[in-house]
Amino acid sequence: MATRLQPVPHNQIELNRPLALDSGAVLARPTIAFEAYGPLNAARSNAILICHALTMDQYVASTHPLTGKPGWWSKVVRPGGVIDTDRYHVICANVIGSCLGSSGPASIDPATGSPYAMAFPVVTVGDMVRAQAMLLDHLGIERLHAVIGGSMGGMQALAWAAHYPGRVERALVIASAARHSAQNIAFHEVGRQAIMADPDWQGGDYYASGRVPVKGLSVARMAAHITYLSEAGLTEKFGRQLQDRDAKTFGFDADFQIESYLRHQGISFVDRFDANSYLYITRAMDYFDLADPHGGRLADAFRHSPVRFGLVSFDSDWLYPTAESRRIVQALHGAGAQASFVELSSPFGHDAFLLDSPEMWRLMAGFVEAGL
Amino acid sequence: MSAPPLRPDLALIAAQVPAGARVLDVGCGDGTLMAALRDDKSTDVRGLEIDPANVAAAMERGLAVVQGDADRDLADYPDDSFDIAILSQTLQTSHRPDRIVDQLLRIAPRAFVSFPNFAHWRIRLALLWGGRMPVTRLLPVAWYETPNIHHVTVSDFRDLVRAKGIRVEAVWYLSGDQPTGDAAASWRAEHAIFLIARS
Predict the structure, then answer these.
(1) Terminal alpha carbon distance of chain B
(2) pLDDT tens by residue, A46-79
(3) Which of A164, A312, B37, B146 could pair covalently with A174 via S-S, beta carbons 3.0-4.6 A apart?
(4) A12-181+289-369 and A185-282 share one CATH topology?
(5) Chain A closest CA to B128's CA: distance in Å?
(6) What's this model's pTM, rounded to 2 decimal places?
(7) In 3-state terms, chain B is what percent helix, strand and coil (to 5)?
(8) ipTM for the complex?
(9) What are the structural domain ranges in chain A?
(10) Which are the contacts of A111, defined by CB distance < 8 A and separation ≥ 6?
(11) For this structure, is A151 an active site residue?
(12) How many Cβ atoms from other residues are within 10 Å of residue A127's Cβ?
């Protein structure tokens, strides 16, 4: 049984400037973990920032240190690939609040010498992006050729364009939204309540106890995982097939393949993710609404934006449906910004952006290369 | 990279669009006209296109194209957000061509509208003698699978814009891809291109 995440080394830097958070709190010396690929050119003009989704990490194109699996977009980000690391300097940073090397609830609070746990300040997508901007300052990269992300990564890409329009040439936003819907918040709340209902959560202060909320985090992951798929995809992959048995057992073991699959997804997640980080990052996503500071007028977030926007949705994604991308497109029209949008067809729901999608890859390559 | 020559109606429209204009190409296909306007006229051109494969092709050319349906999605564009709207070979595929014309002139003060003339003599003859829906060079698909659901003639379109109080600034007619005069255009034009404007 897992106790806590294996400590593994990450490529990380401690920033020597404070990070002021949207909540009003301040992280005095935030740590940012990141991976970088490909050479930065002399003009420092070929940098592409890739922003990761909720449970992803900076290991976009390198082996995950805990799971040993290849990077989550290793087919996309590689030499000669869709995002060609022979020609672009690709950076992917672990978001703050996460647990793969950037400051988060599992980090040591310098004030106490113990992990922050729930004393870690609540962070927002805006804070994640501000931390990334500080990282780029540190690396001496003023302007990005592109910022690209799917799901929560797409939220960061939008936030980059909204908050730093002068630092972003183009933003590619895949399977994402400019705000979290009531349904999105609802699913996140189910996950958080599952974690907090686990006695091993211990008010978040579990790090020294030798027990972690395995069951709570597993259930949270199981519930969330359903939202990443589609009914058609589940039916195609699992249907009503039984798991390693010929007949129903008239009990509550995992009779069905889908049950077994979800249990595996839940339990393996615990080995690579911190339960408190899951609370913090889902909260950040729930708070996300780019129109909120503009009286609900999303167009005002992008007024006269010079950024070139590309938006992609998938027709079977009911978590971040096409309507959310269209809403962004409407706002960009209203703002006079340059926007492209396409809905791709896939049976795989929200997860489609992480799967092999030659259509999406062609679009990505075209968007990244356009005008060069 | 030399671009292939534009379709004759698109070449005619491209020649009329002033340099530097803000242009919306409705039903832009793979962005051929948009690319020409961007590269030759330095226009700020945007597109709307229903077919995702076409949108993808246009995005790969670095064009700003949004996937959408002109019948529904033109409403998303603010008033006067463009100088010129272009609707080429799309009017006859829409559910409500009259409302599309309204939208074009809400979004931009002037619009190019081009369509195949259903009163061309070949079509008239095909109906008269054949008694069947014509299949021609510009209308190459059989009636049951054609996207062209609102066939329109030069006279029909003139009636529509007159009824709406819309000004016709110019009209060009094509026959066999060559310009043809006003005389008997209703019979002789295979293709008409109207430049319309708010009165």
Answers:
(1) 41
(2) 999 999 999 999 999 999 999 999 999 999 999 9
(3) A312
(4) no
(5) 43
(6) 0.93
(7) 35, 25, 40
(8) 0.86
(9) 12-181+289-369, 185-282
(10) none
(11) yes
(12) 25
